[in-house]
Design a protein that fits this description.
Blueprint lengths: L13 H11 L9 E8 L2 E9 L4 H8 L7 E5 L8 E3 L3 H13 L5 H8 L4 H13 L9 E5 L7 E3 L26 H5 L14 H6 L3 H17 L2 H26 L4 H30 L3 H8 L10
Antiparallel strand pairs: 1-2, 3-4, 3-5, 5-6
Helix pairs in contact: 5-8, 9-10
């Protein structure tokens, strides 16, 4: 049962919006089911919440048809210390993978093949493309797993989007953390790290992008995100989710007094605004970051951005 964390004073729907569209769009990433609910405790009204599947070894076992949840290794964050082990073990193996990627040239087919034997690179490419498209500013909340019951390759789980598709605040600083105008490619692949305090390693992603095959796969996944989160699909889902709780949000905001109902409506409209504007900025920054020609943009995305510059 989730109150939406940071999104509790904004829309109450960012996480379920993103996960629902990933599921509907045929993403290979495992998503959490949801139901919007109204909570009463001993007859007392507590307002609007989201009932969610819990991401743990049982969630993965069910999603992937694995018989024994105890044979699943799940890590969090950077994944390179004992504290990162959510279940099972494996942090030493993952640490060795990151160290190998950082110390070998993955443009070499042999080195790349070795990394591919240890992680599902398609899953990782799609995960990274998704994090960038939705403009997630809390990218350090990472969960990933492996199991010998499958192929023992590391796979990533989409998780925690309460601070994604954030409001555009009018700031002229392109290094600010929120808003669809921000260059999330540069942020996500920053050599110093991504997430809060740049505390989360980009060694693996940057090493993989040196390989032409992975780079092409990643850009293909970026194009997929353009389809999954197309403005018409996003706005239709936002309208649906908002309609489901609109009446209750009047009672919820009156009970807790943190925001007014009209403020909630304004912030939901801000989410629609992000849905409308995100594609052009995503295309613009993709072309800039990867130095793509207009012909390459047309081949990968069907077009280039309508933007010629960002101020």
């Amino acid at each position: 049962l989730r109150a939406s964390a940071k999104d509790v004073i904004y829309t109450r729907m960012r996480d379920i919006l993103i996960q629902g569209l990933l599921e509907d769009g045929g993403s290979i990433l495992p998503t959490q089911a949801y139901v919007q609910v109204v909570l009463y405790i001993n007859g007392e009204y507590w307002g609007v919440y989201n009932l969610r599947e819990k991401v743990n070894k049982y969630f993965i076992a069910q999603r992937y048809g694995l018989a024994d949840p105890e044979q699943i290794d799940m890590l969090v964050g950077n994944g390179v210390s004992p504290a990162a082990e959510l279940s099972g073990n494996g942090y030493l193996d993952y640490k060795a993978l990151v160290e190998y990627a950082g110390s070998h040239d993955l443009s070499d087919p042999e080195h790349y093949a070795y990394v591919c034997s240890l992680m599902d690179v398609e899953n990782f490419a799609e995960y990274c493309a998704m994090e960038i498209y939705v403009g997630n500013t809390d990218t350090g909340n990472i969960k990933f797993w492996r199991s010998r019951q499958l192929d023992n390759k590391w796979r990533w789980i989409p998780y925690d989007f309460d601070w994604a598709f954030n409001r555009e605040d009018g700031s002229q600083s392109l290094t600010y953390t929120t808003g669809y105008r921000r260059d999330f490619f540069t942020k996500y692949f920053n050599p110093e790290g991504h997430g809060a305090g740049k505390g989360f390693s980009t060694t693996l992603s940057r090493a993989l992008l040196k390989n032409d095959s992975f780079r092409a796969l990643f850009l293909q996944k970026c194009a997929l995100m353009m389809d999954i989160f197309a403005p018409d699909k996003m706005i239709a889902r936002i309208d649906e989710l908002a309609a489901n709780i609109k009446t209750e949000m009047e009672y919820d905001t009156a009970k807790w007094g943190v925001i007014r109902f009209v403020t909630w409506e304004t912030r939901v409209e801000g989410l629609r605004d992000s849905a409308k504007n995100a594609p052009e900025y995503f295309l613009y920054y993709a072309q800039q970051y990867f130095n793509l020609s207009d012909a390459e943009m047309a081949e990968i995305f069907g077009r280039r951005s309508s933007l010629t510059e960002v101020r």
